[in-house]
Write a structure and sequence with these properties.
Elements (H helix, E strand, L loop, with lengths): L7 E6 L6 H9 L7 H6 L6 E6 L5 E6 L7 H8 L4 E7 L6 H12 L4 E7 L6 H14 L10 E3 L8 H13 L11 E10 L3 E7 L5 E2 L3 E5 L3 E10 L2 E3 L1 E2 L4 E6 L12 E3 L7 E10 L7 E2 L3 E6 L2 E8 L4 E2 L4 E12 L6 E6 L5 E9 L10 H12 L2 H12 L6 H8 L3 H13 L3 E5 L3 E5 H21 L6 E2 H6 L8 H13 L3 E4 L2 E4 L8 H17 L6 H6 L5 H14 L2 E5 L2 E4 H18 L4 H7 L5 H13 L3 E4 L2 E4 L2
Parallel strand pairs: 1-3, 1-4, 4-5, 5-6
Antiparallel strand pairs: 2-3, 7-8, 7-15, 8-14, 9-13, 10-11, 10-15, 11-12, 11-14, 16-21, 16-23, 17-20, 18-19, 18-22, 19-21, 22-23, 24-25, 26-28, 27-28, 29-30, 31-32
Length: 640
């Protein structure tokens, strides 16, 4: 059908008994009141659905909402997907309380196109009709309906219905349908079971495209499923696009597991959250201040959740426009830019609404004004700046593509383009760690500076120590545990730019040189001489220290320096050999094996002049580990 991929939704709005349902029936032939209670009481309680084929070839989905004040929450659920609002006002009554509230709700939800329909034209004379039209002009002033077409109809006689259809046909020419980009999302408004098919959910597709066979996830519950069948505007289809009234037949899901307010979406595209950053318009009609942690009713998509408002101060006055947080009693799954409505907890009436800025924020405290300024910056930022702000907030951990998408509302090629520009400017870095991650370059630069500062402080306190092992250096980071790949990337850059020198596992500032004072140099010579003269029977460290004068702590540092330099070799915790002594032992062993083909422990004892096992075994294992020899049974042979 022409126009199916360019779906648009018309929603009714207005006071109870102003003829919304009767108007939809006159337009489409469909009675949207399907419940027994609705038939008996003559009022709309639940959302009703129909469709209208327009003269321009497009099919318009219609959502009929209840007008009674007790069912405004159902009205909000229906209004969330509206592209066009039909404000229905009975000519014999004019503007009533729900007329005003419904208009405020649609204004808060970002609806920007509409038509005003005066029903029950046959019940008033022309003079009265003109008076009502004049009242309506004043009523819609400074709203999106200012200057909107006004048409008077009688759903009973059919007068004005054709004119309304033509107006709708003209309106849809100028309205851009929702883009099919991004993940598929359908806020669920109805759940039922069809015999032989199983569970069916309905709603208005608000983004992305879904096909038969696609995998989906139901948020916030995390239930997985697959699409068995699709209907759009009551017709069988193979796919559904944004702006379409959509019914989806789900595989392996029970009706009892789902509820209105759940969101069916592309797997991995959303993150359920109890905390949201919001842009809020607090209506003048709210009449009284909204205090910190006041309970409110939060409506988004088709969900209604109780929450508490978190403010930068103690309270806000009616007419306020700015930024707040909300803490919810149960999680919702939303994206930046989604609209919401706030209603007071009790008595219940609409008090405000706006857009979601960050669906997964950190808590912003009243004592931290910088966090509220950060929120304002985020709300006003362009795409690239939003990415950078979120990456900065993520710290060393960085963010994956999916995490950036959830936080920014950017997807696919649009997101790739922005990231490519930021990579080109070196504003972000790319990290291959447990999947691809992006890290803010300022975070990365701060990490490098922290590494330099740690080494500088270490050298200052330990001038005789050559440097730190890489693992020791990483453990000293004040910024907490850092991804090993990010740490090594930072270290490698510092090495490549000549700021750090690396010798095997030991790193130091390139400017650091171990420089011994004259008395320290003498102590170094004395200690090295002790081990050199001891040959293959070296003293313990404590025994060596007793043979020298001076500060024993400094002497220990000099021994550590001799080990780092390779002059001394540690074979066991307290067993240090001079390298020349071990070289001599190696020559003896190699010479013996070349002559006799093998070496036993007894042979080595004889060669070394009667060494005890305390020294022999560590020396022989040292040669094994050095891959000079290999042990075969109780004997050693040369490797290779």
């Amino acid at each position: 059908m022409a126009g199916l991929s360019r779906g648009l939704i018309l929603g009714t709005a207005g006071h109870i008994d102003h003829g919304k349902t009767t108007l939809v029936k006159a337009l489409t032939g469909t009675d949207t009141d399907r419940l027994k209670e609705e038939k008996e009481r003559g009022i709309t309680i639940e959302l009703g659905f129909a469709h209208l084929d327009l003269p321009n070839g497009k099919r318009l989905g219609i959502v009929d909402v209840p007008g009674h004040e007790r069912f405004v929450k159902n009205m909000v659920a229906g209004a969330m997907g509206m592209d066009i609002m039909a404000l229905v006002v009975a000519a014999d009554e004019g503007v009533m309380p729900q007329t005003k509230e419904h208009l405020e709700i649609c204004q808060l939800l970002g609806v920007s196109h509409g038509v005003i329909v005066l029903t029950k034209k046959d019940m008033v004379d022309e003079e009265w009709l003109e008076l009502v039209k004049e009242d309506l002009k004043d009523f819609v002033k400074n709203t999106f309906l200012e200057g909107a077409p006004v048409v008077a109809v009688s759903s009973t006689t059919g007068e004005g219905i054709d004119e309304l259809i033509n107006i709708l046909s003209e309106l849809t020419k100028d309205i851009e349908p929702k883009s099919p980009s991004g993940p598929y999302r359908l806020p669920i408004d109805r759940i039922f079971t069809v015999k032989g098919f199983g569970t069916v959910v309905t709603g208005t597709s608000i983004s992305g495209v879904i096909h038969i066979g696609d995998e989906v996830l139901i948020y916030p519950k995390g239930i997985s499923s697959r699409i068995r069948g699709i209907q759009t505007h009551g017709s069988e289809a193979t796919e559904a696009h944004p702006g379409m009234r959509t019914a989806l037949n789900l595989q392996s899901v029970y009706k009892e597991d789902l509820e209105r307010g759940d969101v069916l979406a592309t797997p991995g595209s959303l993150r359920p959250s109890y905390l949201l950053d919001l842009h809020l318009i607090y209506l003048e009609s709210a009449k009284r201040p909204l205090k910190y942690r006041s309970p409110v009713r939060f409506h988004t998509g088709t969900a209604e959740v109780i929450g508490r408002i978190l403010l930068p101060g103690d309270e806000i006055e009616p007419g306020f426009e700015g930024y707040v947080q909300i803490k919810l009693e149960r999680p919702v799954a939303v994206l930046p830019g989604d609209h919401y409505v706030l209603r007071s907890y009790s008595p219940i009436h609409t008090i405000g609404g706006g857009r979601i800025i960050n669906p997964v924020p950190r808590k912003r405290k009243r004592t931290r004004p910088d966090l509220w300024r950060e929120l304002e910056s985020l709300a006003k930022a362009g795409p690239a700046e939003r990415i950078l702000l979120h990456l900065k907030g993520a710290g060393h951990r960085g963010l994956t593509i999916d995490e950036i998408s959830v936080r920014t509302g950017l997807y696919g090629k649009g997101l790739e383009k922005e990231l490519s520009k930021l990579l080109g400017k070196k504003a972000v870095i790319k990290l291959e760690s447990e999947g691809l991650r992006y890290v803010h370059s300022e975070i990365f630069d701060n990490l490098k500076q922290e590494l330099l500062d740690i080494l500088a402080e270490f050298h200052s306190k330990n001038p005789l120590v050559k440097g730190l092992s890489k693992e020791e250096l990483r453990s000293k980071l004040l910024s907490g545990r850092v991804d090993p790949k990010l740490f090594h990337k930072a270290l490698n850059e510092l090495v490549s730019t000549g700021k750090i020198s690396q010798d095997r596992d030991t790193v130091r500032l390139s400017t650091h040189k171990v420089a011994l004072a004259e008395d320290q140099e003498k102590l170094r010579s004395s200690l090295e001489d002790i081990f050199l003269k001891a040959g293959l029977k070296p003293p313990s460290i404590e025994e060596a220290l007793k043979k020298v004068s001076g500060d024993h702590e400094v002497a220990k540092e000099i021994i550590a320096l001799l080990i780092e330099e390779g002059s001394l070799v540690r074979l066991k915790d307290d067993l240090l050999f001079h390298k020349k002594a071990l070289d001599k032992a190696e020559k003896m062993v190699v010479g013996h094996i070349k002559k006799h083909g093998e070496l036993t422990v007894s042979d080595f004892r004889d060669l070394s002049g009667g060494l005890t096992r305390k020294y022999m075994i560590p020396i022989l294992e040292y040669l094994d580990n050095k891959r000079v020899t290999i042990r075969v049974g109780d004997k050693r042979q040369l490797r290779g």
